[in-house]
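User: Show me a protein chain along with its predicted structure.
Assistant: Here is one chain, sequence first, then structure tokens.
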Amino acid sequence: MTAQMSDSTTEPNSGKTLIRTLLILGASGDLTGRLLLPGLGKLIAQGRTRGLKVIGAGPGDWDGERWRKRVQTAFDGCTANASDAGAQELHRVQQSAEYHVVDVTDDGALAKLLASVEPPAAVFFALPPAVSQKACELLKPEDIPEGTRLVLEKPFGTDRESAASLNRTLLNLVPEDHIHRVDHFLGKATVFNILGLRFANRLLEPLWNNLHIEKIEIFYDESLALEGRAGYYDKAGACGT
């Protein structure tokens, strides 16, 4: 999540519209608690964003108090290296966080929620691919406030056909430069090292190509268990490309 955010709606001297609201769909899920919120907390602690409001949306077994507790827990690890201003901003964002009970697969539900938040907003789809697809299909261009960014994590669709269909749906809603497709594994140091070895090494670069290598398998071991992700893995598995 790299969209710039500040206490002004326009970046000085650039004319670029900045994000005022981060709307997280699937706020109760593992991705939000383990990766998204801690990453956001680090940005806030470093003074990279000010004036942001964080809104979570998801099932009815959560409420505002439980959501703010999740935000606080994720931000706790960011305060040690934060400046005084950063620590104050972390506290402000946590205290102002809101939660909305929404089923994004209900026709009109997401459009109504978007109309209620302060624009411009970044909408983060921390949801299974099929749910993200259906939620986007239910939206109309007029449901999207000006400046809205749509952020989707991989896997993007469930196969090539569904990915192409999702792309068409998104492009009907917002311009291409307002769509962010995120793969957090591509940002890991090991992946950068492999890319560097592949393209910068004069001995390996001519050989490491589709003529000499049939396939590449990368194993990434986690110390985590399913962590509430059984429903996701039942359909998507744990493999990526």
